[in-house]
Each structure stands twice: as structure tokens, then as C-alpha cells.
Amino acid sequence: MVKRILVGAHYGFRDWLAQRITAVVMALYTVLFAVAAASVAGSGFEGWRALFASGFMRFATFVFFVALAWHAWIGVRDIFMDYIKPTGLRLALHVLVILVLVGYLGWAALILGRL
Amino acid sequence: MPEVGIARTRPKYLNLVQIRLPLAGFVSILHRVSGAFLFLFLPLLLWLFGASLGSAESFEQFRQVGGHPLAKLVLLGLLWSYLHHFCCGIRCLLLDMHIGVSREASRRSAVAVLAVSIPLTLILAGALLW
Ligand code: HEM
User: Fold this and answer.
1) In B1-130, where do the E strands start and end?
2) Predicted TM-score (pTM) of this structure
3) Which end of chain B has the least Cβ crowding within 10 Å, N or C?
4) ipTM field
């Protein structure tokens, strides 16, 4: 398992595909977000909050955040694999990225859960 | 050993200032830069999102922080990053599906990424930030 993280071999395709699928999910959400936000423009805090409190928008936004965390993990890991050569440092950075992304996802869930 | 002199003058294009990157390469490296920038500023974006949805008071905080000149500058950078990454990401997905892979078409789509993302950044920044 550890060896796999260091080498990143043989399972690149799965990550490549996941990065594309999450990209499509985020692109679709972006359009939804733009239309929805425009529809409540000018209605201040109440309108903005009501938009995200709706079950559908809450669900879609959560899916977006899951896609974002997954996508960012693969993307940032690829960047580190290109520029960070010392294995120990790279591994430590990978762990750090996973931890912060999991934290962000929990944070996003809290924001949406409180609505 | 005359070869040594010849070998020495051989150009090694590792000088970043000398490398002439084609436009598509430039747009592509900006895709990486924008992705990294978005990642680094996720905490700020999450905080703003949370404050905007929390309560009437936190919404006011959100507006104040978002109205700070320095925050506006960072948000302008993030807005551009997202739009560039979005447009370039779609280009990247089309290329993956072997759409527009010819030299001409890929150059045109690289121009299109800039032609859409930069004006859109300015329009949205004008509407949302200033
Ligand atoms: C509409 C939303 C998005 C779309 C359509 C999208 C699309 C893509 C695609 C297709 C790739 C693969 C590029 C390649 O392999 O050359 C990619 C890479 C990447 N994305 Fe996104 N993305 C989106 C949002 C985000 C966000 C919000 C972040 C930041 C948190 C992000 C961070 C990254 C990173 C760091 C990479 C790796 C770049 C590289 O390897 O050069 N993306 N994106």
C-alpha cells in the first residue's frame, strides 16, 4: 500500500478517470450555481440562505464538495509527483493534503447541515 | 578534442526564459497554476461560503471581509483562476475525447479559453466585486 502511494504505478487510469468524472460533475454544478445565484440576486441574506436550504441545492452542493475534494487530491498529488522528489517529503505532503481535504469536506458538511 | 567545444555550444533549452512555449502550452500551464491557487485558497472560500449562509450577522461579516481591498484582489485572482480552470478543463476533456486534437484546432481552442475566461472574469468582477 505504501509502495503504491510512492510509485503511483498501475492504477493511474482509475485516478485519471475519477479526475475527469469529478471535473464534469463540478462543471455541471457551476452552471447550476450560476443560474441559481442569478435567480436570487438582490434578495439579500434571506434569499441566499433559502436557496441553499432547499433539499435539492443542499444535496447538489454536497456532491460538488465531494467531487472537489477528490479532484483536488488527484490534481495536487500529480503536481507533487512532478516537483517533489524526496520520497519522505512527498509522502508527508500527500498525507497533509488528504487530511486538510477531509477537514474541508467536514467543514462543508457542517455549513450545509446547519441550514 | 575538438568535439568538446562543439558539445559545449549545443543549446540546452532548459533556460525557462529562452523556452518558447506555444500558446496551448502556456494556457495549459496556467491550468496547473490556477488549480494550485484554488486549492491553496480553499479555506478562505469555505469561510466566505459559511459566513454568507450562517446568520444575518455573519452575512454582514462576509460582506465586510469581501469588501476589503486586499480581499477583493485575492478574490479577483480566484475568480480568474476558477474561470480559466473551468474553460481550460473543458478543453482538456474535449481533447481527451479526441475532439480538436489537430494542431490548428487545438491552437484555436487555446485562444478560445483566453477569449472567454478573461472577459468573463472582468465582467463578473465588475458585477460582484466592484
Ligand atoms: C468546473 C470545475 C473544474 C473542472 C471542469 C476541472 C477540470 C480539470 C481537468 C480536466 C483536469 C485534468 C487536467 C490534466 O490532466 O491535464 C484538472 C486538473 C486539476 N484540477 Fe481541476 N477542474 C475543476 C475545478 C477544480 C478546482 C475547484 C480545483 C482546486 C481545488 C481544481 C484543481 C485541480 C488541480 C490541482 C489539477 C491538476 C493540474 C495539473 O496536473 O496540472 N480543479 N481539472
Assistant:
1) none
2) 0.89
3) N
4) 0.89
